[in-house]
Write a structure and sequence with these properties.
Extracellular Endonuclease, Chain A; 35% helix; two-stranded antiparallel sheet; 333 residues; single chain
Length: 333
């Protein structure tokens, strides 16, 4: 009888050990799959920062402001080095203007911008940097997106494919978060480039976008660099940290942030923090098999609550074990 009880105890102990191992493995897996804890909010940091969306000025380039966006013009390549603007939820939902295709040279470029003739017969699309669909909130703003200083030559399969998808995902991000700061443009550090037209407009090999969500209580950023070609790859596969995009482009984004916060936000990213469902305006029929689900959907709220609870749990566990620094280096906190 005693031996039988001993065997039962050993069997029970093995079950408990196995259960603990399973729970530990599950905890580790979920720690990697869920986002880090939100960057702590600070009343001073939450205040608006003038010019937050603007990168550091590029020496020798002229900065031009149009309705709703600002750009830095590179005369050598007849392209914008960067185009920056804030996109809000209200602007995403705006319907004051329809696309007008009013492509034209930019009179504010003193040396003259690219022209319509440069693109004619080139085989390239006049690809928007500040997306026209982001400016439906104003007829003037919509019209201003068609200045050729806001354009770059893009492969049609790229402009109408994965680039358009990324633009739509940006609108989802603005809707979900209430506001995001967007900077976008061609990568101009990997020449030489093919050129088109009499003005020798450079044809970029790659394009970038960076997003910053600076709405309390969570601050986050993410970047993308995509080749100027059609692609069936997921947008997530092109995701990078803002620091990575800075290294590729030679630009300095979000330099107006306090240094410690800038380093934290720009140094890491988590694709699970962002929705990759393209935004579909009301009364528009989506192309493909996706459907936009607002963050007010009950199922989304439940999932968000579960994820938030686990994020709090893993932070408490790592703190109790005294391994917060290791967890942060692994982007678990």
């Amino acid at each position: 009888m005693a031996r039988r009880n001993t065997r039962k105890k050993k069997h029970l102990i093995r079950k408990i050990i196995l259960l603990v191992i399973i729970l530990v493995v599950l905890f580790i897996v979920l720690s990697f799959l869920t986002p880090p804890a939100a960057v702590p909010s600070d009343d001073n940091i939450a205040e608006p920062i003038p010019g937050l969306e603007l990168p550091m000025p590029v020496p020798g380039e002229i900065i031009i402001s149009h309705t709703g966006y600002t750009l830095s013009y590179n005369e050598k390549y007849e392209l914008p080095s960067w185009v920056s603007y804030e996109l809000t939820r209200d602007e995403v939902l705006g319907n004051a203007a329809e696309r007008n295709d009013n492509f034209r040279s930019d009179p504010l470029v003193p040396t003259g911008s690219a022209s319509l003739q440069d693109y004619r017969g080139s085989g390239y699309d006049r690809g928007h940097m500040a997306a026209a669909a982001d400016f439906k909130w104003s007829e003037e703003a919509m019209s201003d997106t068609f200045f050729l200083s806001n354009m770059a030559p893009q492969e049609p399969s790229f402009n109408r494919g994965i680039w358009a998808d990324l633009e739509a995902v940006a609108r989802t991000a603005a809707y979900d978060n209430g506001s995001i700061f967007i900077t976008t443009g061609p990568v101009l550090t990997d020449g030489p480039y093919r050129t088109i037209g009499e003005n020798e407009v450079a044809v970029p090999k790659r394009f970038y976008k960076v997003f910053l969500d600076f709405t309390a209580p969570e601050y986050k950023a993410i970047g993308f660099v995509l080749p100027n070609e059609g692609s069936d790859n997921s947008l997530q596969s092109y995701a990078l940290s803002v620091d990575d995009v800075e290294e590729i482009t030679g630009l300095d984004f979000y330099h107006a942030l306090p240094d410690d916060l800038e380093n934290e936000i720009e140094g890491s990213f988590n694709v699970s923090d962002w929705s990759f469902t393209p935004f579909v305006p009301t009364k528009e029929v989506p192309q493909g098999d996706f459907s936009y689900v607002s963050p007010d959907d009950p199922a989304d709220i439940v999932v968000d609550m579960i994820i938030a609870a686990f994020v709090d749990l893993k932070e408490a566990v790592f703190t109790y074990l005294g391994i917060e620094d290791l967890a942060r280096r692994l982007s678990l906190m």
